[in-house]
Amino acid sequence: RSVYVNGDYLPEGEAKISIFDRGFLMADGVYEVTTVIDGKLIDFDGHFTRLQRSLDELGIENPMDRDAWLEVHRQLVDQNALDQGMIYLQVTRGAPGDRDFVFPDPETTKPTVVLFTQSNPALVDSPKAKKGIKVITIDDIRWGRRDIKTVQLLYPSMGKMMAIKQGADDAWMVQEGCVTEGTSNNAYIIKDGRIVTRALSNDILHGITRAAVLRFAQEAQMPVEERSFTVQEAMQADEAFVTSASTFVMPVVEIDGARLGTGAPGPLALRLREIYIEESRKAAI
Ligand code: PLP
């Protein structure tokens, strides 16, 4: 695989970063995941805009402008002959000479930029989407700025492992009785034809897929309520689903062991998945 590190395209085995990198030592960095279908980027501008916002919130200077980022993404797609999969990008505050809680001087310590591709030919035609996924619920004990897409992913990763250990696929995180989001996706329920998902705040990541799906739902005359919902409400919903760049719209068929509806992916979730894939494919660049 050809990867990108600080201006260079290298074989993955030759790519190196400093042991003093603050991303490695302190999770002081942000990331984005952009999906590739037919060798094209889905919602590149949405991901670029959110990257800029994450960097601004942490006071890290954006090392490249939009067109330079786009060029690196396209180079990696070409060099790796990527048809379907994703591009991961990470920007950290860089590697000062020592470990120190004080941020380094941005004049001397420049951000570290890493990008790589991951191929996944089963994104669109996903066997998981045909069956739906099972989720468990866990306490949301993450920090209070989940709107910033930091590389601090230990708890979500532990949550996913707790789910797998219990024979489920993923975990929904719960704060004061209400679902915030999944470990790496936004969460939705559908009751009597109405789509319900938590409103945007510092409590959740502002999903790029969420924004697109809500827009498509409204265009398809599906009513949307942006509000918190409880676990109880979710267990009694007709349907549920999650969204993320890499899973699109993924039906949820079980919550904490309670089957939703017939236990098969719901018709509205499947329809939204189809619309999302079709429309994003058309708009890909
Ligand atoms: N919420 C969390 C915690 C995530 O990690 C992600 C994606 O990684 C999402 C939501 C979905 O965001 P997007 O649709 O931009 O991929």
TrEMBL record:
InterPro entries the UniProt entry points to: Aminotrans_IV (IPR001544), Aminotrans_IV_CS (IPR018300), Aminotransferase-like (IPR036038), BCAT-like_C (IPR043132), BCAT-like_N (IPR043131), Class-IV_PLP-Dep_Aminotrnsfr (IPR050571)
One cellular-component annotation, GO: cytosol
Cofactor: pyridoxal 5'-phosphate
Alphabetically ordered keywords of this record: Amino-acid biosynthesis, Branched-chain amino acid biosynthesis, Pyridoxal phosphate
A Pfam family it matches: Aminotran_4
CDD domains noted in UniProt: D-AAT_like (cd01558)
Molecular function per GO: branched-chain-amino-acid transaminase activity
Enzyme Commission code: 2.6.1.42
Biological process per Gene Ontology, one example term: amino acid biosynthetic process
Pathway it works in: Amino-acid biosynthesis; L-leucine biosynthesis; L-leucine from 3-methyl-2-oxobutanoate: step 4/4; Amino-acid biosynthesis; L-valine biosynthesis; L-valine from pyruvate: step 4/4; Amino-acid biosynthesis; L-isoleucine biosynthesis; L-isoleucine from 2-oxobutanoate: step 4/4
Reactions mediated catalytically: L-leucine + 2-oxoglutarate = 4-methyl-2-oxopentanoate + L-glutamate; L-valine + 2-oxoglutarate = 3-methyl-2-oxobutanoate + L-glutamate; L-isoleucine + 2-oxoglutarate = (S)-3-methyl-2-oxopentanoate + L-glutamate
Family: Belongs to the class-IV pyridoxal-phosphate-dependent aminotransferase family.
Function in brief: Acts on leucine, isoleucine and valine.
Protein name: Probable branched-chain-amino-acid aminotransferase
